Structure formats: structure tokens, C-alpha cells
UniProtKB/TrEMBL annotation, chain A:
<keyword id="KW-1133">Transmembrane helix</keyword>
<feature type="transmembrane region" description="Helical">
    <location>
        <begin position="145"/>
        <end position="168"/>
    </location>
</feature>
<keyword id="KW-0472">Membrane</keyword>
<feature type="compositionally biased region" description="Basic residues">
    <location>
        <begin position="313"/>
        <end position="334"/>
    </location>
</feature>
<dbReference type="Pfam" id="PF12911">
    <property type="entry name" value="OppC_N"/>
</dbReference>
<dbReference type="InterPro" id="IPR050366">
    <property type="entry name" value="BP-dependent_transpt_permease"/>
</dbReference>
<keyword id="KW-0653">Protein transport</keyword>
Automatic annotation (TrEMBL), chain B:
<feature type="domain" description="ABC transporter">
    <location>
        <begin position="23"/>
        <end position="274"/>
    </location>
</feature>
<keyword id="KW-0547">Nucleotide-binding</keyword>
<dbReference type="Pfam" id="PF00005">
    <property type="entry name" value="ABC_tran"/>
</dbReference>
<comment type="similarity">
    <text>Belongs to the ABC transporter superfamily.</text>
</comment>
<dbReference type="InterPro" id="IPR027417">
    <property type="entry name" value="P-loop_NTPase"/>
</dbReference>
<keyword id="KW-0472">Membrane</keyword>
<dbReference type="InterPro" id="IPR003439">
    <property type="entry name" value="ABC_transporter-like_ATP-bd"/>
</dbReference>
From TrEMBL, chain C:
<keyword id="KW-0472">Membrane</keyword>
<keyword id="KW-0813">Transport</keyword>
<dbReference type="Pfam" id="PF00528">
    <property type="entry name" value="BPD_transp_1"/>
</dbReference>
<feature type="transmembrane region" description="Helical">
    <location>
        <begin position="246"/>
        <end position="272"/>
    </location>
</feature>
<feature type="transmembrane region" description="Helical">
    <location>
        <begin position="12"/>
        <end position="31"/>
    </location>
</feature>
<keyword id="KW-1133">Transmembrane helix</keyword>
<comment type="similarity">
    <text>Belongs to the binding-protein-dependent transport system permease family.</text>
</comment>
Length: 334, 720, 325
């Protein structure tokens, strides 16, 4: 080989020579420190609507919890001097026919509705991830059986089933109602998670784990569920919003929260008879209901943007349209 | 829809180019907004295309080569900011309205896109979509009927069999290669002056790539159009282009005629690219040049030569200012390069590849130590005998019925002995991936047998299987997909150790060790895969696969997802590890040149069967199966002179469906040799399945050591 | 293709029956019509109660009761209500009322939803897009019963302002209305507007969100670029290639949208005093009436499945990739 002096006297950067050497650093340094979590947070915080939603929701819940501390009237007090009065400095949201303070009532209803929504979201995601991941991962008969159950439950609007069961709930605690809501809220999420598990199962890192000899339970715990976490978080918010809508709807018809408990739904029902003459009886409850669900939905949308940048604002790839289709079903139930 | 700096439109300073320029791009700049700031994707590029000329634009992903051509078409998103000038036969295109541009697009300039699978609207027939191109520009004289008739002719022209019928097919009924032809048919429908082909063959198999390039050539002959061929593959350029522009970080870093660029590259980047490609015609003796590091971020580019951080010739002066694209010293004509040390490169009187190895200080890895014992005396570490895997084909989705079987793998036999590398080659759908998944699954096969280190995998207990997994590990094609994005490197590499029950201390000690072994810094142990470049990720995968000190490593296309410059580094690493750790590789690839570089033996698969197998030297010197010959001849060699001399064995059509393979020899529907046979001989191909038989010696009189082919009429044909 | 749809249909029938059984069983378990009877004042004699028990087959096991009911239902007899009226007699009228509401709501909802979604996608990040998005979000966050109440409230203000009964919000016709065909039609329309709007608003919001995202997906697609590259203007490419392709996923949404509609419809009927199936369900549950509940469930299940089946058909019609399966 003819030798030239090309190489002489030059500065060879790290990794320029021998094949097995450290690739030079600058590119790696650029991305340093930007972990996924921080990136997601940054994106979420940049979404002003989502942030507003989060703040609103936290505020609403806090106020509803703490209202007994500062409100002039308690929910179980009656003001015999003020029947059916419009809002005033002493009764911020007015009073009802029998002198109850509408503000205290509304706060109590709001607290119950939000609590029910959050609890149901949790129950639903637990069932959904269990069913979805095992159906998708194990396939075969497990899959077919579980999916048939899902199909079956989807044929019946959950509103209908819960309404049918509701007579049995008369007189029992609202916790039972929450369980019932949870039991009928997981199907669509489960389907989405199953679809996702199916793709994850074919992903090479899952195959790699399988070829290392990792048992199924470990693979599901370590690779499948964590990789669906973003979807699960998004879905919980959607379920929470949908549940609040469903719960208030059911309560409105007397199939949901039973007296003496109150929820926004029962309040609106009580106030709607005289909607025209005394709008404050239902407008505050209705307004807060819309605001809370809107807040939840904004959070969900913001989370989706932040966690799943490809979807750019709740848009998913065409392929998954079928799956995502199911999502707004929940958003708008009732 | 495009935004332009107002001063550019009125720029009188640019002298009108010579009349013969078809397309003249000057000082084109394109930038996009992004999360981190404005991305300057193209930073001032100028080139011109003469009528009938083929200009190759070469660069790695992110070099701005596609963006610049989309700018010519006026198809960049509205958020892109474009400045400079783009003239088509003297007419300025920048600043034209969408309506004005739409009259030019498809009529004067046509485009062929990279991904044929998504380039056609799924809901209309192929014929309708071609006819549409004719109708939009045809004016009143073009009737729907005439357009339909013409689209059949066009499909016929681009080599789609039964064009009359196929014209009514929907895109999803076409294979990738056929769709790309349909797109080309659409592009030439209106006899354009210029065709821009953006990576037209990247998504296709090599034999299909050869077909499509041929079609493109035909298209050019028919229309006399100039072609801008954008690609990352220097081999493709060598065989097709007249002139070449090499792009790096949004700029042209070297331009010249194809011969100048390949014979006398004057920019270290071009040199490195040339040296990084494994060559079919050289093989093992060729040192591969890795260009370490990554292209710079296009958001905040430091001053100076953008290639500086990766350049072996970097000196302090390089960081002063970005080198201009100047006529290379000693070059005749218009050979330009953007490097301050071109003169020194010119003085070196070594040719491309050798010079690259020298400049980048690349060495051949010596693997001879592994082969002191003759092959037959070495232990069989992986034995596959008559392996069969059929998938059921089912209908519907509710009550699924079995209607047939995809014969993905149908009687595959090979063995891998200690310390050797077997390359398993074939095009997509040939069953090579199924084969290795079957092996890795360690489940009893449907037919045949698999032995790992002497134990048959049928009838293994769970514990045995776990033990065998220690000796048999895999590295997948896509390093991003095979690393769980949510785990840090430490956990990723530790995973196999944990599964096999190693103690915490052992793991803590072993992980940094492994990272060093594959050339990663152990400080990076807490990083996530997303923070690494493609090549580094593949190194992580290799480290993970080596964690348990396996004897056999299955490599499933380990470099095909990487840019060429990165690919070389990984191949060198694999070679070195093999020697150091005494590994045996089963190396699956579609690229015969990579196999030629790294493998000791090669097995060629077609439709679930091995058609030719043997030592690399023998097979490549004297390929005997017509399919191997076609495959070899389809692979472009990055050397324009060689390319010009070469004669292509073109295959017709696509691979038949493995659900319904042809009788007798599975290759007969596409076999070029079959066509030359007489009826009796053909009858044998149709009726009788050819078995693997020892091949003929390359030169009469010499003995065949290790070479078998499965063809009744096998004959030697040199194609490289 | 036809075979595929037939097979789908078969599975649906099975799902339908199991679903109805489930509702029937749940209703039979939780409902206690006898208790209702006993609560009456004065309490009916024991003999009457026993007669009722026998009449409602309350002593038989639930599966037997279901088979019994189903057998009758197959012959067109859906049984008696608790207060001894025939379900079959009332069924057609109520089905008619519900279907009118559902169909109108769907047609208006899909039509306007698609238009709104496309417009919003094409003008992404412009004011109209933000407005449409906000509209959808607010509507999707408002329960139907509240929407109905608010519309009612608004209509009342409108009527007062106009000094005439422009919009009517109780019942589907004015009771005992007599008049020419034109007047009758006008009367119907006056009754129709509010409930249809209540139900259509949700549908518009729902479909527009998805049409928007489907359209945006298509906006970045390669084939749209190809269409432009061959010389179509952006607008033409968008409509001819983009919209047509973006409609495909809408077909699958249809089934889900319809399920949503049924729940919403129930509330709407109740609020506007339309005696449809949803209203009947609420009434049936309030009366502890298993037969009514089962009948409505069957109706709902059939509707859900028909919509699912139609969804498949639309999908097959819109997408050649499925058509040729
Ligand atoms: S200018 Fe310097 S850094 Fe850039 S390519 Fe030339 S020698 Fe390398
Ligand atoms: S057996 Fe016949 S068809 Fe097959 S490869 Fe040989 S010549 Fe071609």
C-alpha cells in the first residue's frame, strides 16, 4: 500500500479509529438529561387547556371537600326564614323549597360525583388491564372467551343494566353503586389494551425477553403493562369523565345515588321541575357538572398529547381508528 | 402556500444559467419550526440538471436530500420556510401559487416516492389513479375512455403483466414492486421533462430494486426526461447516475461526475461512505470504514465544518468557518468538494476504498485463528434438519376456518459449527425469519428437528430449555424495537442475567463489563435507549445477547436498519467479538454483500427452501443456482466502472405466495434458466423437486469442498 | 364477502339472545312486583296476590320463565305488563316513536358532524377549528338530560320573546290536534326540533371529533402527496383522495355512535315526554316490570347489533381492502 502523509499530524477524534471504540459523545450529550418523564411533563404543562383543566379539577375537589369549613350553612341545616330564595350573600347559591342551602348541597353533590368518577376509573382500569393484557398475551381460548364477554356487555348499554339492577340498591350505600359502575365500565378499555398487547407481544423486546426464558407473568408485569401505562392513564381520565356523566344521568332518573346521599344528578333532578322560575336550583349544579367533566376531558386530551406525540391532539393513526372509536363512546355516554 | 423571502424573488444577481439547464436550483434553503427551535433542513444547496441527465443526490437520513426535492415539487408543508431559487427551464417555481404549480406538477415534473405501499390512495383502482394523472392535464381532448386505454398501455410499459386486467385492481392487491411501477407509470403518464425519484427502491427487495431501476431507465428512454435520483445507496448511484451530489447536514459537500466521485473522492465524508460499504466483489479482505458519531443537530449548528466531529482529518482550522464548495484541486471540470484539506487528499494516490481505509484507519479483522481446525472436525453448535413450519390460513374473523397453509419453512437443513458464521440470505417472505423464530422458540417443530449444542429441542424439560437459552441468544433487526424504551441500559443488559438467576453482585459487576466489551462507556449505564443513536442501541442489544456468554448468536438482520456509515462499525464489532469470544453466528440478512463480508458460509433461501449453500468463497465465485445468480447480479456494486460492465440477470414478477407454491422447483415461475430449457428439461423442473446436490467445481479439475445447489440444471455463471 | 356478513349476523343473533336473557334474569332477580302490590292501600286480598304470582309465573325458575317469554315473543306476544295491558299492542307505536328520533338524530348528526370535522381539520389551528373543538368538548362534557333541560329553558325564553309557541317541548304531537296536512306537519316539526337537536348535538360533536382526526391523519399521508404530485390542486386532492379515505374509519365509528345515541335517546324521550322505548324502560323499572324491561332490552340489543352489522357493511362498501375478503 502506498503510504501518504494524509493521516499524519491530524487530530483523530475519539472513536475515529479502532472499530470497537466509544462512539463520540456530542450527540449523546445533546439529549442528556431529557428523560421521558420530564419530556412528558414539559409537553403537558405547555398545553394550557390541559393545565387549566387540572387546576380547575383540583380546585373544585378541594373546595367541595373543604366547603364545610368556610360556608355559612351546612347541607343538613334548614333556614326557615328563607324558602326558595335566589342567590344572596348569606345563601350563595340560593335556597330550596324547604330552606336548604343550595351551595352546601351542591358542594356535597359535587364531592360525591367526583369521588364516584375517580373510584370507578380506578376499578375499571384494574379490571381492564387484567382482562386486556391476559386476553392479548395468551390468545387462544382465553382471548376468545374474554372477548365474547366484552362483546356481550357491549351489546347492552351499561346504563340499561345498572338501571335494571338499581332497585336492588335502594337503601344501600353508594359504594355498591360505584362497584356496579366499575364493573360495567371496563370493556372498551380492555379491548384497546388487548389490541395493544397484541402488538406489544410481537414487538422484539418482548420476543427478546421470551427468548431469554422470562416467564409470562414477568413479561406482562415488566414489559407489557408498563408500556401501556400512558394509554392506561389517558383511559382512566376518559373513564372518569364518562362515569360522571353516566352517574349523574342515572341519579337524575333515580337509578343512581339514593337518598340520603346526594350527587349532582339528584340535585339537578330536584331542581329541574321548576327550572323556569327558580333556575338557581339546577343551574349551579349543572354548570359545575359541565365544568368538571370538561376539566377532566381537557386533562385527558392534554395527557394524550403529552404521552403520545404522534396522536397530535387526540388523533390516532388510521389503523387504530377502530379502537379509538370506542373511546369517545365513553366520553359521551349519557 | 410556500413562504419566500421577498428579496429572493427579485434577486437579479443570479446570472441566467446556460440554456440547456432543465432544472436549476440555487441557494435553496428550507427550515421548519420544531420543539427545539428552527430546523435548518437544507442550508443553501445549488445544483442543475440537464435534459436527459441523471443526477444522483446521496446522503444519510436527515441530510436534507428529500426535503430539497419536495421543495422543487412545491409539496412542503406550509410551515416550511423556503428561500433561494428553483428554475425549471428558466421559469422560477418558488412563489407560484398552488394552482399554478399544479399545472406544472405531473406534466413537467413528476415524482416517485419512497414508500410505494402508502403512495397510492387505497380506495381507488390503480387504473383510475393513473387515468387521473392524464385527465387533469389532458384538457378537453383527453376523454375518460382514452385515459383508461392509455393507463393500460402505461402499466404495460412499466412491465406489469396482464395490464388489461390489473388496471382494475386496487393498490392493496399489488405487491410493493408493482405499486412502485404503477407510481412510475403515473409519473411518466404526461411525458414529463423531469422525474424526481425519492429513494424509489429503498423499501424494496434487491431483485425488485433491480427491476424498478430498469423500469426507471426505460421510462427515461421513453420520455427523454432528466432524472433526479435521491438515495442513500452509493451502489444504486454508481449504476444509474451521470453526476452526483453528496449531501451532509443540509449542504452539498461534494459534487462531480459519477466517475470522479467514486474514483477520486475529495471530501472525507464521501470517502468514508465509500469505504463503509461492504463490497460484493471484494469480500472478507476489505476493511470496513466506520464513520463514528452522528450527524449534527440541524437546530444549532456550530460554526466550522459540520463533519468536523466525525472527521479523521479534522484540524483546528476546520472549525474556523464552514468550508465552501470549491473546485477540487487537480480535478478536471466541475468536481467540487467542501473541505479545506482536499489538496492533501488529492496528493494521496490511493484509490477510493483503500484511501478510505487508510484515512479512517480501518483494519481487517483476522478471524483465521478460529479456523485452525478443519470445519468437519469442529463441533456442530446448531443443527437444523428438515425443519418445517406451516401457518394455517384462516378466513373471516368470527368463526375462523382453516382454508390452507402458508408453507413458510418447508424442509430446511443446515448446520453451524463452532467458530463459524453462516449467512442465511433471501428476500422478504422467503422464510428466513420464520426459521430463526422457530429455532429460538425452542418448541418442538412441526417437522424435522433442531439441535442446539448436541441436544435435540424436542422433548426438553422446562429446566433444560432454560439452560439451553444461555447458549443461544439473538440480536434483532431493529434496535429500537428490541429494547424496552422504559428501562435504563443497566436493566436491559441485566435482564437475561436476572432471568437466569444471577445474584445482584454478579449482575452489578457484569453489566459495566459488557458495556465496555461492545464499546459503550459505562457512565451511560443509567441512560434510556431513546438517548442513544441507532448504532449504539444495536451495541446495547449485542451486550444483552452476550450477557450469558452464549456459544451461538443468532443475528436477525442486525445492520439493515442502520445507516451505512454506522453499519460498518457494528459489523466490525461483530467480527471482533467473534474472534475474542469464539462465537458462532447465524447471520440472517437480505444483503448478500454484508454476508460476503462477514460470513464463512452462506445459505440462500427461496420460498421456504434452501436453494444453495456452501462456503462463501465457493458460492460467490461460482454461483450455480439461477436464483443465487439473480440475487447476486441484482446487488449494485459501488463502482461505476464495474457497474457499466455488469450484465444483470433480471427476474420477472414477484415471489409466488408461500400458501400456494409452484410444483416441482419452487423457483420455476421466475427462473431465467427455465426459459432457455427445452420442453423435456422444463418438464423435469415442473414435475420433480430438485434436491441439494454437490455443486460443480469452479474450475474443472479442482475439488468442491463445501458447496451444494438445488437445481436440476445448475450451471456456473459469474455475475459479480 | 356475503358469507362473512352472514356469519357476523349469526354471531349477533346469539349475542342478542344472551344479552336479553341477562337483562331478563337481572330484572327478575331484583324486581319485586308483588311487594308493590302489597303496598297498595287497601292491601289486595291474598287471592289476588296469588293470582298475580301465577300470572307472572313468579314461582317458576328464571330460565324457565325466560324460555316461556321468549317462546311467546317469537310468536309476537311479548307478554303482559304488571298492570295487565298487552305489551305487543303498545310496542309498535313506541318503536315508531323511538326510531323516528334515532334516525333523525343519526342522519343529522353524521351529516353535520362530518362537515364540521372536515372543515375543522382543513382549517387546523385557525379560529374556526378552535371554536369547533371547543364546541365539541363542551357538548361531550354535558350530559344529555342537562342539554335537554337547557334547550327547554332556552326554547321557553324564545317562545316568550316571540310571543308565540314556536317550539313545543312536551309530547310528539299536540294532543287531539286536528287540521290540514300542512298544519299537522308543522305541528310535528314544532315538537320534533328540540328532541332531535338534543340528540343530534352529541352526535355532531362525536363524529366531528373523529372526522377531524381522520382527516388530519390523511392530510399528512403519502398518497395525498402523490395526488398533488400528479397535478391535482391541494383542494381537489383533499376532497377527492383525502376525504374519501378519511370516511373509511367513520364506518366503524357508526356502531359506537349508535350505542351512544340509544342511551341519550332514553333521556331525551323522558325529558320531552315522548312515549318511546326509552321512556318505557324507565317506566318498566319503576313499575318492577320484568316483561317490559326484557322487551326493551331485546329492542336495544337488536338495534345495537343492526348498527354493528350496518357498520360492517358500510366499512366493506367504503374500503376495497375489506370488500374482497
Ligand atoms: S474541513 Fe476539516 S473537518 Fe471538514 S471534512 Fe475537511 S478535514 Fe474534515
Ligand atoms: S430446477 Fe429448473 S426451474 Fe428450478 S432453478 Fe433449476 S432450472 Fe430453474
Amino acid at each position: 500500500m502506498t503510504t501518504t502523509d494524509v493521516g499524519a499530524g491530524t487530530h483523530v477524534p475519539a472513536g475515529g479509529g479502532a472499530p470497537v471504540e466509544v462512539p463520540s459523545g456530542p450527540a449523546a450529550a445533546e439529549t442528556e438529561g431529557v428523560t421521558r418523564g420530564r419530556l412528558v411533563l414539559r409537553r403537558f404543562l405547555r398545553n394550557r387547556l390541559a393545565l387549566a383543566g387540572l387546576v380547575t379539577l383540583v380546585l373544585l375537589y378541594a373546595v367541595s371537600l373543604l366547603s364545610p369549613l368556610f360556608a355559612p350553612w351546612a347541607y343538613n341545616q334548614y333556614d326557615y326564614t328563607a324558602f326558595l330564595q335566589p342567590p344572596s350573600p348569606s345563601h350563595w347559591f340560593g335556597t330550596s323549597q324547604i330552606g336548604e342551602d343550595v351551595f352546601a348541597q351542591t358542594m356535597r353533590g359535587l364531592q360525591k360525583s367526583l369521588t364516584i368518577g375517580l373510584l370507578t376509573g380506578l376499578i375499571s382500569i384494574v379490571i381492564a388491564s387484567l382482562v386486556g393484557a391476559s386476553a392479548g398475551y395468551f390468545g387462544g381460548w382465553v382471548d376468545r372467551g374474554l372477548m365474547w364477554v366484552v362483546d356481550l356487555l357491549l351489546v347492552l348499554p351499561s346504563f340499561l343494566i345498572i338501571a335494571v339492577i338499581s332497585p336492588a340498591l335502594r337503601g344501600s350505600s353508594w359504594i355498591w353503586f360505584v362497584l356496579l359502575l366499575g364493573v360495567f365500565a371496563w370493556m372498551i378499555t380492555a379491548r384497546i389494551l388487548r389490541g395493544m398487547t397484541l402488538t406489544l407481544r410481537e414487538r422484539e423486546f418482548v420476543k427478546a425477553a421470551k427468548f431469554m426464558g422470562a416467564p409470562s407473568s414477568l413479561i406482562i408485569r415488566r414489559h407489557i403493562l408498563p408500556n401501556m401505562a400512558s394509554l392506561m392513564i389517558i383511559d382512566v381520565t376518559i373513564t372518569v369523565g364518562a362515569t360522571i356523566l353516566l352517574e349523574t344521568g342515572l341519579s337524575y332518573f333515580g337509578f343512581g345515588v339514593q337518598p340520603p346521599d346526594v350527587s349532582l344528578g339528584t340535585l339537578i333532578r330536584a331542581g329541574s321541575d321548576a327550572a323556569v322560575t327558580t333556575p338557581w336550583l339546577f343551574l349551579f349544579a349543572g354548570g359545575l357538572l359541565v365544568i368538571s367533566v370538561l376539566a377532566v376531558n381537557f386533562i385527558g386530551d392534554g395527557l394524550r398529547d403529552a404521552l403520545d406525540p404522534n396522536s397530535r391532539g387526540g388523533r390516532r393513526r388510521q389503523k387504530s381508528a377502530r379502537k379509538s372509536a370506542s373511546k369517545t363512546k365513553k366520553v359521551a355516554t349519557s | 402556500m410556500t413562504m419566500i423571502d421577498s428579496d429572493v424573488l427579485a434577486d437579479p444577481g443570479l446570472p441566467p444559467g446556460p440554456d440547456d439547464a432543465l432544472l436549476e436550483v440555487s441557494d435553496l434553503e428550507v427550515s421548519f419550526p420544531s420543539e427545539d427551535g428552527r430546523v435548518r433542513a437544507v442550508r443553501g444547496i445549488s445544483y442543475r440538471v440537464a435534459p436527459g441527465e441523471v443526477l444522483g443526490i446521496v446522503g444519510e437520513s436527515g441530510s436534507g436530500k428529500s426535503v430539497s426535492s419536495l421543495a422543487v415539487m412545491g409539496l412542503l408543508p406550509p410551515s416550511a420556510k423556503i428561500s433561494g431559487s428553483i428554475r425549471l427551464r428558466g421559469q422560477e417555481l418558488l412563489g407560484l401559487s398552488d394552482t399554478e404549480l399544479s399545472r406544472i406538477r405531473g406534466r413537467k415534473i413528476a415524482m416517485v416516492f419512497q414508500d410505494p405501499l402508502s403512495a397510492l390512495t387505497p380506495v381507488y383502482t390503480v387504473g383510475d389513479q393513473i387515468a387521473e394523472a392524464l385527465l387533469v392535464h389532458g384538457g378537453r381532448s383527453m376523454t375518460a375512455k382514452a385515459a383508461a386505454k392509455r393507463s393500460v398501455e402505461l402499466l404495460d410499459l412499466v412491465g406489469i403483466p396482464n395490464a388489461t386486467d390489473r388496471v382494475n385492481a386496487f393498490p392493496h392487491e399489488f405487491s410493493g414492486g408493482m405499486r412502485q411501477r404503477a407510481v412510475i407509470a403515473m409519473a411518466i403518464a404526461n411525458d414529463p421533462d423531469l422525474i424526481i425519484a425519492d429513494e424509489p427502491t429503498t423499501a424494496l427487495d434487491v431483485t425488485v430494486q433491480a427491476q424498478v431501476l430498469e423500469v426507471l431507465k426505460t421510462a427515461q428512454e421513453v420520455t427523454g426526461a432528466g432524472i433526479v435520483l435521491i438515495t442513500h445507496d452509493l451502489g444504486v448511484v454508481a449504476g444509474t447516475a451521470d453526476r452526483v451530489v453528496v449531501m451532509y447536514a443540509g449542504k452539498a459537500v461534494e459534487t462531480g461526475t459519477v466517475d470522479e466521485i467514486f474514483a477520486a473522492p475529495r471530501m472525507p465524508y464521501t470517502l468514508g461512505l465509500l469505504g463503509s460499504i461492504p463490497r460484493l466483489d471484494i469480500g472478507r479482505g476489505q476493511p470496513l470504514v466506520p464513520i463514528e458519531g452522528q450527524p449534527p443537530s440541524m437546530v444549532a449548528l456550530p460554526p466550522g465544518c459540520p463533519f468536523g466531529p466525525r472527521c479523521p482529518l479534522h484540524v483546528d482550522a476546520c472549525d474556523q468557518a464552514e468550508p465552501e464548495l470549491l473546485v477540487a484541486p487537480g480535478a478536471s471540470g466541475d468536481h467540487r468538494a467542501a473541505c479545506i484539506r482536499t489538496a492533501e487528499l488529492a496528493e494521496a494516490d490511493a484509490e477510493g476504498g483503500e484511501l478510505a481505509a487508510e484515512v479512517f484507519d480501518a483494519h481487517v479483522v483476522d478471524t483465521s485463528a478460529l479456523h485452525t481446525v478443519p470445519r468437519t472436525e469442529r463441533e456442530v453448535v446448531l443443527g437444523v434438519d428438515g425443519l418445517v413450519k406451516h401457518y394455517p390460513v384462516r378466513t373471516g374473523s368470527v368463526f375462523r376456518r382453516k382454508v390452507g397453509a402458508v408453507q413458510a419453512v418447508d424442509g430446511v437443513t443446515f448446520d453451524v459449527r463452532a467458530g463459524e458464521t453462516l449467512g442465511l440470505v433471501g428476500e422478504s417472505g422467503c422464510g428466513k425469519s420464520t426459521t430463526i423464530l422457530e429455532i429460538m422458540g425452542l418448541e418442538p417443530p412441526m417437522g424435522g428437528s433442531v439441535q442446539v449444542l448436541g441436544s435435540d429441542i424436542t422433548g426438553l424439560s422446562k429446566a433444560d430449555r432454560k439452560r439451553i437459552r444461555r447458549d443461544l441468544q439473538i440480536v434483532f433487526q431493529d434496535p429500537m424495537a428490541s429494547l424496552d424504551p422504559r428501562l435504563p441500559v443497566r436493566d436491559l443488559i441485566a435482564e437475561p442475567l436476572e432471568v437466569q438467576g444471577f445474584s445482584k453482585e454478579q449482575i452489578a459487576q457484569r453489566v459495566p463489563e459488557l458495556m465496555r466489551l461492545v464499546g459503550l462507556r459505562s457512565e451511560q449505564i443509567n441512560r434510556y435507549p431513546g438517548e442513544f443513536s441507532g448504532g449504539q442501541r444495536q451495541r446495547i442489544c449485542i451486550a444483552r445477547a452476550l450477557a450469558l456468554e452464549p456459544k451461538v448468536l443468532v443475528l436477525d438482520e442486525p445492520v439493515s436498519a442502520l445507516d451505512v456509515s454506522i453499519q460498518a462499525g457494528v459489523l466490525n464489532l461483530l467480527d471482533e467479538l467473534k474472534v475474542r469470544l469464539g462465537l458462532a453466528y447465524l447471520f440472517v440478512a437480505h444483503d448478500l454483500s454484508v454476508v460476503r463480508h462477514i460470513a464463512d458460509r452462506v445459505a440462500v433461501m427461496y420460498l421456504g427452501k434452501i436453494v444453495e449453500i456452501g462456503s462463501v468463497d465457493e458460492v460467490f465465485a461460482a454461483p450455480q443456482h439461477p436464483y443465487t445468480q439473480a440475487l447476486l447480479s441484482a446487488i449494485p456494486v459501488p463502482d461505476p466502472e464495474v457497474e457499466r460492465r455488469r450484465e444483470r440477470v433480471l427476474l420477472h414478477g414477484d415471489m409466488p405466495s408461500p400458501a400456494n407454491p409452484p410444483s416441482g422447483c419452487r423457483f420455476r415461475t421466475r427462473c431465467p434458466l427455465f426459459l432457455t430449457l427445452d420442453a423435456d428439461q422444463q418438464a423435469r423442473c415442473i414435475g420433480e423437486e430438485p434436491l441439494r446436490r454437490p455443486a460443480q467445481p469452479a474450475e474443472p479439475g479442482t475439488a468442491v469442498v463445501d458447496h451444494e445447489a438445488a437445481c436440476h440444471w445448475a450451471r456456473i455463471k459469474t455475475v459479480v | 364477502m356475503a358469507r362473512f356478513l352472514v356469519r357476523r349476523l349469526f354471531n349477533y343473533v346469539a349475542l342478542c339472545l344472551v344479552a336479553t336473557f341477562l337483562a331478563f334474569a337481572l330484572a327478575a332477580l331484583t324486581f319485586d312486583p308483588i311487594a308493590k302490590l302489597q303496598e297498595r292501600n287497601p292491601p289486595p286480598p291474598q287471592s289476588a296476590i296469588d293470582a298475580k304470582r301465577a300470572e307472572l309465573h313468579l314461582d317458576e325458575p328464571i330460565p324457565a320463565r325466560f324460555v316461556h317469554w321468549l317462546g311467546d315473543a317469537a310468536r309476537g306476544d311479548f307478554g303482559q305488563t304488571v298492570v295487565n295491558t298487552s305489551i305487543s299492542d303498545e310496542l309498535p307505536r313506541r318503536v315508531g316513536v323511538s326510531l323516528r328520533l334515532f334516525l333523525l338524530g343519526t342522519v343529522v348528526g353524521i351529516g353535520l358532524g362530518v362537515i364540521l370535522g372536515v372543515a375543522s381539520a382543513i382549517r387546523q389551528y385557525k379560529f374556526s377549528d378552535y371554536f369547533a373543538t371547543l364546541f365539541s368538548f363542551v357538548i361531550l362534557s354535558t350530559p344529555v338530560f342537562l342539554l335537554g333541560l337547557l334547550l327547554k329553558y332556552g326554547a321557553l325564553q324564545l317562545n316568550t320573546a316571540a310571543g308565540a309557541q314556536l317550539l313545543v317541548f312536551t309530547g310528539e304531537t299536540s294532543p287531539g290536534f286536528q287540521g290540514s296536512f300542512g298544519a299537522a306537519l308543522l305541528d310535528r316539526i314544532q315538537h320534533l326540533v328540540l328532541p332531535t337537536l338534543t340528540i343530534a348535538l352529541g352526535q355532531i360533536a362525536y363524529y366531528s371529533r373523529y372526522q377531524r382526526s381522520a382527516m388530519l391523519d390523511v392530510l399528512g399521508s403519502d398518497f395525498l402527496r402523490t395526488a398533488q404530485a400528479k397535478g391535482l390542486t391541494r383542494r381537489k386532492a383533499l376532497f377527492k383522495h383525502g376525504l374519501r379515505t378519511a370516511l373509511v374509519p367513520m364506518a366503524t365509528l357508526f356502531a359506537f355512535g349508535f350505542g351512544l345515541l340509544i342511551t341519550g335517546g332514553t333521556f331525551t324521550e323522558r325529558i320531552f315526554g315522548w312515549y318511546g322505548m326509552g321512556d318505557w324502560l324507565v317506566y318498566g323499572i319503576e313499575q318492577d316490570d320484568t316483561n317490559i324491561t326484557a322487551t326493551v332490552t331485546l329492542f336495544v340489543a337488536v338495534l345495537v347489533l343492526i348498527s354493528g352489522w350496518l357498520s360492517d357493511v358500510f366499512y366493506a362498501l367504503l374500503d376495497p381492502r375489506v370488500r374482497l375478503r
